[in-house]
Each structure stands twice: as C-alpha cells, then as structure tokens.
Specification:
This protein is an alpha/beta fold. About 45% of the residues lie in helices and about 25% in strands.
Length: about 180
C-alpha cells in the first residue's frame, strides 16, 4: 500500500481521490488526515534522501530530461537534472535530482555545487551530453575531472546528418 500511495503522491493525486481509490481498490476507509500524515512521512523521507551526505565517487554521469510541470496555472516544459555516481567499488547511485527551468549554466552550476556541499568529492571522470551550459558548469565545479561526451547522445546527434535511415547502422558502428 505504501508503494501505491507513493506513486499517487508523485503523480499529484489529490487527497480526496486517494481516499476514493483506496476504498475502491483495497476496501479500506482512510481519512484525508491519514493521507496527509502519510504524505508528510513521504516528504520527510524524500528530504532526508535529497540531503544525505555523499562521499567519494570517481565517475559521474550527468543528464537532463524534460517533463511537463504546472507553474502558476500554466503547463511548462521543465528540466530535470540528474547526477549518477559510480563509487570506487563499482556501484552506481543516483546522487541527486534537481528541477530547473532550463539547462542553463547557472542551473547546472547550482546543482553541482549542491552535490559538492553534500560531500561529493574525488570525481575524476564525467560523462554527459555536449550541452554548453553543462560543460561550463563542469569547468567551474569539477574543472580537474576528465570529460567525455556520451556516445548515445553523440549517435543521436550524428543521425540528424545521415541522409538515409539504412545508413544509420554503419554510422553508429563508425562512432563506437
């Protein structure tokens, strides 16, 4: 039930709708106070995760995706910045997520600084797309780390210049 509630919470389902869904799906009568208490607990858990201390991560993968969000009564395309680290023992971990209005340098820089403030250190190698704002922010925050363009992004960008779909496999092979 906790997972179902978390999913509804993430998707912005109203308290009244949660009550109705639990009644129909589970036969449970839960009050709006119960839902509010549970969402408060989820908020607290999310806040702990967002502010947890980091540590040494040798490799960093950075990317953004765009999601529709509602702001001031309007639906806007919003950048969701994501940092994934690989520790010295080879384990990947999502280090942080930040919702910003764009991928401008200032947003990436603030996000990366927040990761450093939480203790992220030891970054030797960064993989990301070729976004100018991101590259500038990396120079400011992790200037000594080596950078490599993500091959998936490189291939996608290259395909825009391939005149025939049938030629894409050959181009992809040449890039790798």
């Amino acid at each position: 039930l906790r997972v179902v509630l978390a999913e509804m919470y993430i998707n912005g389902v109203s308290t009244r709708k949660v009550e109705k869904i639990f009644k129909e799906m589970c036969g449970l009568d839960i009050s709006s106070n119960d839902v509010s208490r549970a969402t408060k607990m989820l908020d607290e858990e999310l806040e702990k995760w967002r502010n947890r201390p980091l540590g040494k991560f040798k490799y960093l993968q950075l990317d953004a995706r765009y999601e529709k969000t509602r702001r001031d009564g309007r639906v806007l395309s919003t950048a969701v910045l994501v940092a994934v680290g690989v520790s010295e023992d080879g384990y990947r971990s999502v280090l942080g997520v930040s919702v910003s209005i764009s991928e401008a340098e200032v947003h990436w820089r603030n996000f990366l600084i927040s990761l450093k403030e939480r203790g992220l250190h030891g970054v030797e190698y960064v993989v990301s797309d070729d976004h100018e704002g991101l590259k500038k922010a990396l120079q400011t925050t992790f200037g000594s780390a080596s950078w490599n363009r993500c091959h998936v992004h490189l291939q996608r960008n290259a395909f825009a210049y391939v005149p025939k779909v049938a030629m894409r496999k050959e181009v992809a092979g040449d890039i790798s």
